[in-house]
Amino acid sequence: MQNDPENPPQDGGRPKLLTVLCVLSYIMGGVASLSYFMIFSMYSEIMPQLAEASDQFPGFEMFLGAGRSFFLTGFVLYFISIIGVSLMWRFRKAGFHFYTGAQVMILLMPLFYIQDFLFPFFDGVLTLLFILLYSRFYRLFT
C-alpha cells in the first residue's frame, strides 16, 4: 500500500484525510438513516405533528406529500452509503462504488417522489466534493 505524501499514514497506513472523510460520512449517514427509519416506522404518528410544525420550517411541506415509501427509500440508500463507507474504511474498492451510487441516488430521490422539487445545488456540491475526495484514495483500495 502506497502512502499519499499530502496525508501521512496513521493507524496502520490510513491517511488522515481518509479517516476524517469516513468519520464524517459515518456520522452524516448514520443520523440520516436513523431519521429516515424513524419517520418511516412511525409515519402515521409523526406526519400530523410535522404538518403542524411545517409553517416554522419553510419548504418542509413538500416532504409531507412524499409518502411513506420516500422515507423507506431514503433509509435504504443511506444504509447502502454507510456500507460503502465501511468498506472504504477497510480499503475495499467496492465501497467507493456503493457510496457513490447511493449518494447519487440520494440526490435524485426527491425528484422522483416530490412534485416540483428543485435540485438541491448545495447538497450536490457537497456530495461531489466527498466523492472527489474519496476518489483520491481509490488507488489504495483493493
Topology:
Elements (H helix, E strand, L loop, with lengths): L8 E2 L3 E2 H26 L1 H11 L7 H4 L3 H22 L3 H21 L7 H15 L7
Antiparallel strand pairs: 1-2
Helix pairs in contact: 1-4, 4-5, 5-6
Descriptive report:
With 142 residues, this protein is an all-alpha fold. It has helices at 16-41, 43-53, 61-64, 68-89, 93-113, 121-135, and strands at 9-10, 14-15. Helix 4 packs antiparallel against helix 5.
Concise description?
The chain is mostly helical and 142 residues long. It contains six helices and two strands. Helix 1 runs antiparallel to helix 4 (68-89), helix 4 (68-89) runs antiparallel to helix 5 and helix 5 packs antiparallel against helix 6 (121-135).
Question: Tags for this entry?
Answer:
disordered N terminus, 142 residues, elongated, two-stranded antiparallel ribbon, mainly alpha, 6 helices
pLDDT averaged residue by residue: 88
Structural class: mainly alpha
Molecular shape: elongated
Proportion of residues in β-strands = under 5%
Alpha carbon gap, first and last residue: 9 Å
List SSEs in N-to-C order: EEHHHHHH
Q: What's the number of helices?
A: 6
* Count of the domains: 1
**What Rg is obtained from the alpha carbons, in whole angstroms?**
17 Å
Strand order of the largest sheet: 1-2
Number of strands: 2
Level of helix content?
Answer: 55-70%
Low-confidence stretches: 1-11
Major pleated sheet: 2 strands, antiparallel
